[in-house]
Specification:
The protein is of the alpha+beta class and about 475 residues long. It has two domains: about 1-235, Nucleotidyltransferase, domain 5, CATH 3.30.420; about 245-425 and about 445-485, Nucleotidyltransferase, domain 5. About 40% of the residues lie in helices and about 20% in strands. It is built from 18 helices and 22 strands. The protein has helices spanning about 50-65, 105-110, 115-120, 130-140, 145-150, 155-160, 170-175, 190-195, 235-240, 270-275, 300-310, 315-325, 345-355, 365-390, 410-420, 430-445, 450-460, 475-480; strands spanning about 1-10, 10-20, 25-35, 40, 45, 70-75, 80-85, 90, 150-155, 170, 180, 185, 205, 210-215, 230, 250-255, 260-265, 280-285, 290-295, 400-405, 425, 465. It has a seven-stranded mixed β-sheet, sandwiched between helices. The chain is globular. It starts with a strand and ends in a 5-residue tail after the last helix.
């Protein structure tokens, strides 16, 4: 069967065509496009009309390469949502990168407390403006908007609905909201009522694999035989983890704008240790729970590339990584999650300013900045790896890596060195593979996730990086632990 995976990240989107049988799994990129928040009326928002146009163009391009399309599934970044009334979007969805998204965070914490939030939702992410924070800000700052709304849809379901699918909720993307009970895999109604937030606008939650109806004939490549919209694991991290050939002794790391490091579990972990380390329980495919932590990832590097592009400097990865290899290792470190790093302003200037203010050598040139960011990212990831091992009382024997970092050999080797664990990198497009796999499980011929993962192991050849040893990563972790975050 021919399946189309629409994979939308916070910095770009890609359309993939996959063909899945009981014995083979192929995936190819059809088209790629940029996606970035735009400024409108003082807010950073997502241009859904542009995204929908790109998706329709991608379906047309996929149809040109295949003998008919059977299903389409959309996955996106988490957190963000649209509010509708009578099926119409009330305003462009706000990006979680918008400074206003955290406007009432401290009021929310004061009302219910962080520990109560963690107990109710299993989410202990205190830095990323999730759906709960954004909804609370709207309730406090723009209550009329919330009163007008009769439906809330997360971005992947919103786009599926715009293409003709029936509106629903889906557990993997909903679990990023900090509004879901991870044990019951349902909305945390008591918490929302305690905060005075409406529950009647929330859609019923379904597991990955829900069939939503056909693509509207206005958007289908062949209006007479439109493909069927199917909900995959619609949070991109959940899709990526589903698409990794995970073994029971491995941690996963999905690399993109955010790094998400975690382990797959049967049940949520809401211990004091998990709370202390700000670990979160997000829901995965096949009834799983992903105990994980988010680290601000390649967003910093991509923002640097954007600034350099505007300045007419080279931005291709071969050039940047070659320059980074020549720069001194671990000379300067930044905490990727520090408040100092924002979508507003020049990221190279922000990196240099942070190093200057923390008494470190200021990185020079592109190579110095890229090396600083790569060293910082792997050091922060190594710190989180240690926390995760403590929380589950066992140290994963290896790391299985998906996402854009798979292509970055320097990053992969540094990660193996910093964690002192083998790093198995691949498939490159783990998110698309997981999206396609969960579609194939929904409509056949793959019976379940585990069978699909066995097929992935034989269909995509990974690369393994063994730790080289002999480098002072413990010292780097101590230095980074001491750096300021605000």
């Amino acid at each position: 069967m021919n399946h189309v995976a629409i994979d939308l990240g916070a910095s770009g989107g890609t359309v993939f065509l996959g063909n899945v049988t009981a014995s083979s799994f192929t995936v190819e990129e059809v088209t790629r496009f940029d996606n970035r928040p735009t400024e409108s009326d003082g807010r950073y928002v997502w241009d859904l009309e542009s995204l929908a146009d790109h998706i329709v163009a991608g379906l047309d391009a996929a149809a040109d390469q295949a003998d008919g399309l059977d299903t389409v599934g959309i996955d996106t970044w988490g957190l963000d949502f649209g509010l509708l009334a009578d099926g119409e979007l009330l305003r462009a969805p706000t990006s979680y990168r918008d400074p206003e998204a955290t406007a009432t965070r401290e009021d929310l914490f004061e009302t219910v407390g962080k520990r109560r939030l963690f107990e109710a939702t299993g989410i202990a992410n205190w830095n990323t403006p999730n759906t709960l924070w954004q909804l609370h800000t709207i309730a406090e700052r723009d209550p009329e908007l919330l009163e007008r709304a009769d439906e809330l849809l997360m971005i992947p379901q919103l786009l599926s609905h715009l293409l003709g699918g029936r509106p629903i909720g889906e557990t993997t993307i909903a679990s990023t909201t900090q509004m879901v009970d991870p044990e019951g895999r349902t909305w945390a109604g008591d918490l929302l009522e305690e905060l005075g937030l409406p529950t009647e606008i929330l859609p019923s939650l379904t597991e990955p694999g829900e069939r939503l109806g056909a693509v509207d004939e206005r958007f289908a490549p062949d209006p007479e035989v439109p493909p069927e919209l199917v909900t995959p694991a619609s949070h991109d991290t959940a899709a990526a983890v589903a698409g990794l050939p995970l073994t029971g002794d491995a941690a996963f790391l999905n690399t993109g704008s955010w790094f998400i490091l975690g382990v797959e579990r049967d049940d949520p972990v809401r211990t004091d240790t998990a709370f202390e380390y700000s670990l979160s329980n997000e829901l995965g495919a096949n009834g799983t729970v992903r105990l994980l932590k988010n680290v601000n990832g390649f967003f910093l590097l991509e923002e640097c590339r954007s600034a350099w592009r505007e300045a007419g400097e080279p931005t291709d990865y071969d050039h940047l990584l070659s320059a980074a290899r020549q720069a001194p290792p671990r000379e300067s470190l930044v905490d990727p999650d520090a408040d100092a790093f924002s979508i507003e302003g020049s990221m190279p200037k922000q990196v240099r300013s942070y190093c200057r203010q923390t008494g470190q050598p200021v990185p020079s040139g592109q190579g110095g900045i890229v090396r600083c960011l790569l060293d910082s990212l792997v050091t922060k990831t190594a710190l989180v790896f240690d926390q995760l091992a403590t929380a589950v009382d066992e140290t994963p024997a290896r790391i299985t890596l998906g996402g854009g970092g798979v292509r970055n050999e320097l990053f992969c080797q540094l990660l193996a060195d910093a964690t002192d664990r083998p790093v198995t990198a691949g498939p490159v497009e783990a998110t698309a593979v997981g999206n396609l796999l969960t579609q194939a499980v929904a409509v056949g011929p793959i019976p379940n996730l585990e069978t699909g993962r066995r097929l992935i192991r034989t269909s995509f050849e990974p690369t393994t990086y063994d730790p080289a040893g002999g480098r002072d990563w413990d010292g780097a972790k101590e230095r980074l632990r001491a750096l300021p975050t605000n």
